[in-house]
Specification:
single chain, mainly alpha, two-stranded antiparallel sheet, 3 helices
Length: 253
């Protein structure tokens, strides 16, 4: 009998066929999930590489933004009140898009600008060029922050998807497939045992019939011998018994 965990089924040819089909399906599912896990892992590593690069660039960009802000404050004075007064509505807006990677939906953030620049006259009196350079640097930093947020969101989603997929792969590989294999081995062993028992039974029946035929033959010979002794006529020449089973020759009309 097969060792290990197996499904409690009645061993038969039909159940064996069903188990083989289920095993084939489990192996196919394991192969597909393995490919999905590899694709997600590849995307995960690429995303991690981009995150590291963006964070490295982010440090330099934020340093440049703070220096530009200090230069603008030195050249144009305190422009915070002007910026607050002109801030009617947001010009930079975030757009959400979906990216499908091996059946996993990844959220991407993209920044786009709407409307005209309301801060184009800021610093017109003095330090206009410095203020404009500070604004461009801050715009670049915001765009980089949005890209970094998109990458980190995808990173978290991919991490969870990889964990779930790997759990399914391991479950199929180490639980489901061995269970089906043990069940198939158990059914095959039981069917072989039944065939051996059936062969042994038929052999015993044939031996029993052979013994019975030999006894009947010996009894018939002994009976014929006694008849010859009693009547003095050979059994072949004696009148035929109507109760004996003997095939008559076919008559052709």
């Amino acid at each position: 009998m097969g060792t290990g965990e197996k499904i409690n089924v009645f061993p038969s040819r039909m159940i064996l066929t069903v188990m083989k089909l289920r095993l084939k399906g489990a192996q196919k599912g394991h192969s597909l999930l393995k490919k999905k896990s590899d694709a997600l892992t590849l995307k995960f590593r690429a995303t991690l590489k981009k995150i590291i690069e963006n964070k490295t660039v982010m440090g330099d960009v934020m340093k440049t933004v703070y220096f530009s802000l200090a230069e603008a404050a030195y050249a144009a004075g305190d422009i915070s009140q002007t910026v607050i007064q002109n801030a009617d509505k947001a010009q930079n807006k975030i757009k959400f898009t979906k990216d499908n990677v091996a059946g996993v939906q990844l959220t991407n953030f993209t920044m786009h600008t709407e409307g005209s620049d309301v801060y184009q006259l800021t610093g017109l009196g003095k330090g206009g060029q410095t203020v404009s350079r500070c604004k461009d640097t801050a715009q670049k930093a915001i765009k980089l922050l949005v890209e970094l947020a998109s990458l980190q969101t995808s990173f978290i989603t991919l991490d969870e998807a990889i964990k779930i997929t790997n759990r399914r792969v391991n479950g199929i590989e180490y639980v489901i497939i061995p269970r089906y294999e043990n069940t198939i081995a158990y059914i095959v062993e039981e069917l072989d045992e039944r065939e051996r028992e059936e062969f042994y039974r038929l052999k015993k029946v044939q031996d029993k019939k052979k013994v019975i035929r030999e006894k009947q033959k010996a009894f018939l010979e002994e009976y014929n011998k006694k008849e010859e002794e009693n009547t003095g006529v050979a059994t072949e020449d004696a009148p035929r018994n109507l109760l004996e089973t003997e095939h008559d020759p076919d008559i052709m009309f």
